[in-house]
Specification:
Layout lengths: L21 H7 L5 E7 L6 H11 L34 H12 L4 E11 L9 E10 L3 E2 L3 E14 L2 E15 L24 E2 L19 H8 L4 E5 L5 E2 L14 E5 L3 E10 L16 E8 L4 E7 L11 E10 L2 E8 L3
Parallel strand pairs: 7-14, 13-15
Antiparallel strand pairs: 1-3, 2-6, 3-5, 4-5, 5-6, 8-9, 8-10, 11-12, 11-14, 12-13, 14-15
């Protein structure tokens, strides 16, 4: 799943508006216009998709199985997606808005955050319909990725013609920063944390390399990223029922408790499933910087939870389900270090 978050995806760089922005005035005229009209989900809410979602997320809540099952609320957007063939009900205003931005050189896009409101549970058999509107266009902002505009669309979702929820999705449509200006100097970390616990550091990048998008850091997962900076992969454990959970959440899926503590993962795991990314070529996601194919895996940790990360140390076409992997920390640039997993062909 694509990883979306809030505007801190651009690392809290000050956003500077431009009062004399003629393009902004043209873009703002699209606020309130339709992005999708009388859309309909390609499939009704169904048990197989609920099962796949729960398996991928490691969510074993009993509410999502059995004769009275409901769909996980966070699946709200999933029932509206058009798949590879897309939808035919998108409004002309949406294409016009993006055409203006593309023509002005704002050709790149990154998802920044989404907000959802749930009005009623979705159950197998529910027929999904929706409308979407271009809710807001920001003034021009400057971020580490580049300069551009934040665009917010709001989708109102119905089930059996009853209001079911609202999905707000925000992206940054931007002109990439000139290479070398956004990146800081190459990192040279000689602190003890760089070599403790037997975890290796790999893939340090020199100046001028493409930067990975910033991870989403908010109040619900800040502790996870603090652990990463200390070379610890931390898993949440419910303070009431002691169920482990990952990714980090404000409450327990099993019992609903908001009390929790952390346990440190051993770093051992196996590849539960994986995909090989061939397109688009983006050097920042290749440990060698050559923009070649790379493997992204759903890793089952020894503790029983699963997480998504890159598999390094083996060719992408040698990754296999069941392959043992071990945690490493990959420094991608001077400011960012990520957990990855090293595989072994043996």
């Amino acid at each position: 799943m694509p990883h979306v978050g809030d505007v801190r995806n651009v690392r809290d760089v000050p956003h500077v508006g431009d009062a004399g922005d003629e393009l902004y005035e043209r873009l703002r005229a699209y606020e309130g216009r339709a992005a999708a009209i009388a859309g309909s989900g390609k499939d009704p809410v169904n048990e197989p998709m609920i099962r796949h979602w729960c398996e991928a997320m490691g969510d074993t809540n009993a509410a999502y199985t059995g004769p009275d099952a409901v769909a996980p609320p966070a699946m709200l957007q999933a029932w509206t997606m058009g798949g590879l063939s897309g939808h035919t009900d998108r409004g002309e205003a949406y294409d016009e808005l993006f055409g203006l931005l593309d023509a002005a050189g704002y050709v790149s896009v990154v998802a920044t955050d989404c907000e959802q409101e749930y009005l009623r549970p979705l159950r197998p058999g529910d027929r999904i319909t929706f409308d979407a509107v271009i809710e807001a266009v920001s003034e021009r902002k400057t971020t580490k990725l580049g300069t551009g505009y934040f665009i917010t669309t709001r989708m109102d979702v119905r089930a059996q013609d009853e209001p079911a929820g609202t999905h707000r999705f925000r992206i940054l449509k931007y002109r990439p920063a000139v290479k070398g200006k956004a990146a800081g100097p190459a990192a040279t970390d000689k602190s003890p944390a760089a070599t403790d616990k037997g975890t290796a550091r790999s893939g340090e990048r020199g100046p001028g390399r493409s930067l990975r998008p910033r991870p989403v850091i908010n109040r619900d997962n800040a502790g996870f990223w603090q652990g990463i900076s200390a070379h610890q992969l931390l898993i949440q454990r419910c303070g009431a029922c002691e169920t482990l959970r990952f990714p980090w959440l404000p409450g327990c899926n099993a019992c609903g408790s908001s009390e929790w503590e952390t346990v440190e993962a051993s770093g051992e795991g196996t590849v539960f499933s994986y995909v090989v990314m061939h397109h688009p070529p983006f050097p920042a996601f290749s440990t060698s910087g050559d923009a070649g194919p790379y493997a992204v895996a759903l890793v089952e940790l020894a503790e029983g939870v699963r997480m998504i990360s890159n598999v390094v140390g083996v060719p992408y076409d040698k990754v296999r389900v069941g392959m043992p992997v071990r945690l490493e920390f990959l420094r991608t640039d001077a400011e960012l270090e990520l957990p990855v997993f090293r595989g072994s062909e043996g």
